[in-house]
Amino acid sequence: MQRCRGFSLLEMLVVLLIVGLFSALGVASLDAGQAPMHQALAQLANEARTQAAVARHSGQLLGLRWNGRQPEFVRWQPGRGQPSWQVQSSRTTPWPAGLQPDWPVSAAPQVMFTPSGLARPVSLTWRWAEGRQRWQWRADNTLQIATQP
Questions:
Q1: Vertex 64, ends 111 and 148: CA angle to 5°?
Q2: Which residues pair with 123 in a beta bridge?
Q3: Is 2 inside a domain boundary?
Q4: 115 compared with 139, residue with greater pLDDT
Q5: Which first-to-last residue range defines the signal peptide (predicted)?
Q6: pTM strictly above 0.85
Q7: pLDDT at 57 over 70
Q8: What is the torsion angle, in degrees rounded to the nearest 10, for the CA atoms of residue 59, residue 64, residue 65 and residue 67?
């Protein structure tokens, strides 16, 4: 009886399954670095749209500024003494450390939401090690987002 040397179909399928599993894990680990950045920016964009709607319907001046560590939403307080921008409730999730805007730290907001819409059209770029995202606020209060490599 002659013995045939080679791999059985079952052995080949097991090897292909293991290779497929390792390549899927490799792709998932490569993409994991950008996931927190995209998630934080998506949440910030939703909060900004909400702030724009609140400003339109409540008649208040609201804004978005960078404090050096994270973005924050502010409200104009004309009250007693010196009128100023007051920080609204803080973010519930921590801001990713490597995610930075192209605008400086400032006491005044970069983006201002007014009852009549956006104070002026604004273009912002968010940068991190693996990419960047460009936000363009238009005069009609719409936000256009473009992700760039």
A1: 75
A2: 136
A3: no
A4: 115
A5: none
A6: no
A7: yes
A8: 110
Q: Can you give the pLDDT at residue 43? A: 92
- The order of strands in the sheet holding 122-128 is 100-101, 122-128, 131-137, 143-148
Domain of residue 141, CATH code: 3.55.40.10
Instruction: Quote the number of domains for the chain.
Output: 1
DSSP states of 88-133 as a string? -SPPSSPPPTT-EESS---SS-SEEEETTEESS-EEEEEEETTEEE
Residue 82: which domain range? Answer: 36-148
| Gap between the Cα atoms of 75 and 54, Å rounded | 11
Beta bridge partners of 144: 136
In this structure, are residues 52 and 141 in contact, taking their beta carbons and an 8 Å threshold? Answer: yes
In a domain, 30, yes or no: no
Residue-wise pLDDT tens digits, 20-29:
888 888 776 6
